[in-house]
Amino acid sequence: MARAVTTQRKAINTAFAWGVGLLIFFPILWTILTSFKTEAQAISDPPVFLFFDWTLENYAVVQERSDYMRFLWNSIIIAGGSTILGVIIAVPAAWSMAFVPSPRTKDILLWMLSTKMLPAVGVLYPIYLLFIKLGWLDTQIGLVIVLMLINLPIIVWMLYTYFKEIPGEILEAARMDGATLKSEILYVLTPMAVPGIASTLLLNVILAWNEAFWTLNLTAAKAAPLTAFIASYSSPEGLFYAKLSAASVMAIAPILIMGWFSQKQLVRGLTFGAVK
Amino acid sequence: MATQHSRSAARLMMAPAVFLLLVWMLVPLSMTLWFSFRKYLPLRGGDLGWAGFDNYVRFVTSSAFWPSVMTTLIIVGGVLIITVVFGVLLAMLLDQPMWGQGVVRILVIAPFFVMPTVSALVWKNMFMDPTNGLFAHLWKFFGAEPVSWLSQASLESIIMIVSWQWLPFATLILLTAIQSLDSSQLEAAEIDGAKPVSRFYHIILPHLGRAITIVVLIQTIFLLSIFAEIFVTTGGAFGTKTLTYLIFQRVLESQNIGLGSAGGVYAIILANIVALFLMRIVGKNLDT
């Protein structure tokens, strides 16, 4: 919207918006600041904002005491693995629905979406039981599969909306030139689909990274990702604000950065293409 | 355009995704349905046989049921009102010309990317703690008695935490919708002397109608099943036991599978009612 406004009005807008923005961001900022304090400074009265002795000690201690790296590794495997597996399964499905639509395509898409609406708690025990039977409780593979399944509808949907935007004429032209299905996918479609696939990967890594129902209920110690690691800090064990902050910052930093890159995809992915 | 050959290829390509989701949906669902009609207590004898509708009746008549429904409604309703009202205001603010718009947008949407356990713990300890929390310091500074938020104002506190997480989502979607508004309409209204308030009610709000509906429906589905925020902060104490949390306790804590499964069936029905409306809107959008 390029409406002409006075500089004064723009200045007021700017000040107001920055104020609100910082207020909303403040809990995260405060967590980052606290993570660099000593435990004593973290609970000092009155609180200190910037003028304290900055220290990296908490980050070292969190790693040492709680084996942070193992949880991080679990998170990476679970979020990354479930997303990649999901995309591998979803790409052919989305491709065929976008380019070879049948009268039932719409129903299939909506049905897939409906599986996403199933409240997790409704199937908690069956999944728990199946996990015990399969020996998947507290394993990476089990969580990779469950998170892949809960995000599969979103992955199919996102890919579908991206593929839909690829003009069909190009494919027809390729077919006229005698391209086989394989080379059509490999040389025509793939290069055009890469940006959409990349955004889908990004958003789904974020969703899987932050998933906190199945990761809390299906892991104990071995395969626990960062969501469970942070939850273990909820038991009261004295003064631990600075360490809690350091652990929190480490858990959210990678995803915060990825999230900022995926703003646009977020809207498309989470509204199933209804708002673009 | 599609040949018989490409049709069958397409069906083949769709098969894995459809098959997996079918299994994922049908197997656990039928198990839940089955268990809900059994007297099933793994720690006290296992499967003790057919129970008819006993579990369904007991779940609804237990003293914890109606409070949990109320709690769920209050949390979902409270968060929806806060996120939609402030989301509209924020989206309108972010749509104004200003310096550093990109940075402000990043600041505003950041909470959405914070994992639920982190935001719950950070709010619980560093803001809402009655002795060391920032709110306690703030209250003392103004000479007021610090509040132990999560026990005295537990529902409000959880609504606050969850709203903080979901406000970015509402804002981002509403901002996307506002940006698609034809600005010449607003300019014409401005020239014709329409006051800001009437411009809002007659042009902006109707334009946002669909986006608001989508925000409400999607958030409702996610909010009905919030878990980590309660698990970490109150563990269901102080009147914060939602329907989801109640079922979780029945199933995993007291290991009454039959009862929990009956509750699960209720939760599924509830979610499906909301989902039906959402699907209708999304489905309409598919035709265009």
Task: Compile the SSE list and pairings.
The complex is a heterodimer of chains A (276) and B (288).
Chain A: H1 7-35, H2 39-42, H3 57-66, H4 68-99, H5 105-116, H6 124-134, H7 140-164, H8 168-176, H9 181-210, H10 214-217, H11 226-231, H12 241-261, H13 263-270
Helix pairs in contact in A: 1-12, 3-12, 4-7, 4-9, 5-7, 7-9, 8-9
Chain B: H1 4-36, E1 38-41, E2 46-50, H2 54-61, H3 65-95, H4 101-109, H5 116-127, H6 134-141, H7 149-152, H8 154-179, H9 183-191, H10 196-224, H11 228-233, H12 243-253, H13 257-287
Antiparallel strand pairs in B: 1-2
Helix pairs in contact in B: 1-13, 2-13, 3-8, 3-10, 3-12, 8-10, 9-10, 10-13, 12-13
User: Distance N terminus to C terminus of chain A?
Assistant: 17 Å
Helix content range of the residues of chain A, please? Answer: over 70%
Molecular shape of chain B? globular
Outline of chain A: globular
> What fraction of residues of chain B sit in β-strands?
under 5%
Radius of gyration from the alpha-carbon trace of chain A, in angstroms: 23 Å
Tell me the strand percentage band of chain A: under 5%
CATH fold category name of chain A:
MetI-like fold
Q: What helical percentage do the residues of chain B reach?
A: over 70%
Q: Compute the average pLDDT of chain B.
A: 86
Tell me briefly what this model is.
The complex is a heterodimer of chains A (276) and B (288). By secondary structure, chain A is an all-alpha fold.
Structure, explained:
The complex is a heterodimer of chains A (276) and B (288). Chain A is an all-alpha fold and 276 residues long. Chain A has one domain (62-270): MetI-like fold, CATH 1.10.3720.10. Chain A has 13 helices and no strands. In chain A, helix 1 packs across helix 12 (241-261), helix 4 packs across helix 9 (181-210) and helix 8 runs antiparallel to helix 9 (181-210). Chain A is globular. The two termini of chain A are 17 Å apart. The model of chain A has no long low-confidence stretch (mean pLDDT 84). Chain B is mainly alpha-helical. Chain B has a domain at 62-254: MetI-like (MetI-like fold, Orthogonal Bundle). In chain B, strands 1-2 form a two-stranded antiparallel sheet. In chain B, a hairpin with a 4-residue loop joins strand 1 and strand 2. The mean pLDDT of chain B is 86. Classes of the chains: A mainly alpha (276), B mainly alpha (288). The interface between A and B is large, with 100 and 109 residues. Chain A: One of its GO terms (cellular component) is plasma membrane.
